[in-house]
Structure formats: C-alpha cells, structure tokens
Specification:
By secondary structure, the protein is of the alpha/beta class. Helix 3 (about 65-80) crosses helix 4. It has helices spanning about 15-25, 40-45, 65-80, 90-105, 210-215, 225-230, 260-265, 285, 295-310, and strands at about 1-5, 10, 15, 30-35, 50-60, 85-90, 105-110, 120-125, 130-135, 140-145, 160-165, 195, 220-225, 250-255, 270-275, 290. The chain contains 9 helices and 16 strands. Bound molecules: flavin-adenine dinucleotide (FAD).
Length: about 325
Amino acid sequence: MSVLVYIDTLGGTVTKNSLGAVSYGAQIGSTTVVTNGRVDASELEQLKNYGAEKVLVNRSVEGADASQLTKLIVAAAEQVGADTIIFTNDLTGKAVAPRVSANLKAGLVSGAIALPEADGSIKTNVFSGKAFGIMKVHSPKRVISLTPNATEIKEISAAGSVEEFSPEVGTPGVTVKEVKKQEGDVLLTEAELVVSAGRGLKGPENWGIVEDLAKTLGAATACSRPVSDIGWRPHHEHVGQTGIAIRPNLYIAAGISGAIQHLAGVNGSKVIVVINTDPEAPFFKAADYGVVGDAFDVLPKLNEEIKKLQAQS
Ligand SMILES: Cc1cc2nc3c(=O)[nH]c(=O)nc-3n(C[C@H](O)[C@H](O)[C@H](O)COP(=O)(O)OP(=O)(O)OC[C@H]3O[C@@H](n4cnc5c(N)ncnc54)[C@H](O)[C@@H]3O)c2cc1C
C-alpha cells in the first residue's frame, strides 16, 4: 500500500500532530510525506524516525492557500502512486482533504480515531464525539483525516530522504494578511496536559490559580465557551463543539458544568479530572476522577501537593 501524508508546519517546525500522522501512515504502508514552506532540514530529518521513507518539500510557495495545497498534494499523490492520503483533521486538513478527495475521486473518511481494520473499515468520531462511526471506503483511493492525538505515536525507522518538489500550483486565491500567534508556553492543540476552567471561576481576575497549576504541570490552559464569549479568556482557549477539540492525556476541568457542547471537544481526553461544587454537575458522569469541592480551595491545594511531589522526585 502506498501512503502519502500531508504535514503542516508551524513556524518551520514539525508539530506533534504531524508526527502522529506520519506514524499512522507508516503503520498502513510505504509512506511519503509532502509539506511546504520554510521548514528546517533538521525538522524534516526527524520524520524518518516515524516511518517516512521519503519527504517531498515545496519551499517555493510560502503561505499556500487551500487551492495551491490541493494541487501540491494531488501532484505528490500522482507522483508516488498513493492510494491512501492522510491529513490531520485540523483547519488545513478540513479545508484541503475534501478538495483532494474530489480531485482524486477518492472516498473521504473524516475524523479517524483508529488505524484501518483488516477489512479496511475505519473508526471515526461522529456527532461531536457522542458516538463512533465505522466507515468503509469503496473507491480504489481513499483520503483519511485523522483526529489529533487519536492514536499512539510509534517510532518506526525508515530512510527519510528529503527531496525538493515544486509542481505548478498556480497563484493563491486567498493570502494571509496577518498571523497572531497564540500566547502561552504550551500550545493547546499540542498539549499533553490541560488545565481548564469555566464560569465557576467567577471572573478573569481569578485565573491566577488556573495558570499557577498549569505552570507547575507544564500544561496548557483552556476554558469553556461562555468564558471566552464574555472576554475573560482569549478565544483560542475555548474548547468544545464550536471551539477546539483536544485529546490530551490529562484534562483538569474546574468550575465547568460539562454541557454536551463542552464535552464534544474534550471527551477524547485520556484522563478527565472534574472539580465542581455541585455533586450533580453533568461533567462528573464523564470524569475519571471527580472532586466535589470549591475550585478556589482545590486548585491551590492540588498545586501545592504536585509541587511537593516534584520536589521529592
Ligand atoms: C450551539 C452551541 C454550541 C456551544 N458550544 C460550546 C463549546 O464549544 N464549548 C463550551 O464550553 N460550551 C459551548 N456551548 C455552551 C454550553 O451549552 C454551556 O452553556 C457552557 O459550556 C457552560 O459553561 P460553564 O460550564 O463554564 O458554565 P456554567 O454552565 O455556568 O457552569 C459553571 C459550573 O461551575 C460550578 N461552580 C460554581 N462555582 C464553583 C466553584 N467555586 N468551584 C467549582 N465549581 C463551581 C457550577 O456548579 C457549574 O457546574 C454551546 C452552546 C450551544 C447552544
């Protein structure tokens, strides 16, 4: 099976989600990676540790739009004879995967959360994570967009040769005017650990206890939608159905009720810890660990205990 993986790069670096997509592809078949932009050679080098046999890089187009990326990826798929094309189901993947699928007349599986089964069926998240779907593609080619953090990243050794690849991709229909980077040390979409809070925190002035715990853990911070709507926290922290969907190893939620729209973005987290004063809060049903208590007491105490444990080790 010949697999092509498109990876997006962030400021010239390869993201964890991209490594996950490459490792996913390598577990399916012989994998070529295609990417664009100014990516450091050392960044591309590491892809061979995740199963990339070849890396095609187009450095000539910076900030390519969806139509240019489609042309780049279709040309790469045709060059390597790919029958499976893989994306991460992020903003770029959502915009480009359907176009590539239409161009190649390939069936599209969106939001995969597992490797294909022996019969080719693929498990996906549907209804905002409330249910699983089992999809089967009947066309000779298929496009799979992968839910971030859905599968284990495996180290697989491969040749990883890097080649320049500059097919004609035309001019962009849309150009990037300005990029405002997310603040904070840990990127939410890439974070293994996330500390999140909701309206139970009462106001933006109280977020110090959330940030302190996140700092101690090396975690990213997140919030519920009303919190970003009111302007207590920036919009890029909003998780859920209408915000970012995340799947960290640990999600700590303080003062969040656990509405279905919030859960849609976080219920793929490996371990969920809920802190809420209301024992009937719906979030407890989705929690691995629940603390019925006041976030203003629990978060600082948790922080102190973790610091003590860190000092001992
Ligand atoms: C179409 C649509 C899309 C939506 N998309 C999203 C989305 O993407 N993400 C999202 O988050 N929401 C979304 N919502 C809103 C969602 O339905 C909820 O209204 C929202 O998640 C509630 O936010 P919250 O839990 O912070 O606030 P609340 O519902 O007000 O809950 C606050 C919680 O804090 C607890 N609490 C209070 N004080 C304390 C304390 N001192 N310590 C501990 N706990 C305390 C309370 O018991 C309560 O459970 C959407 C709604 C709609 C209709």
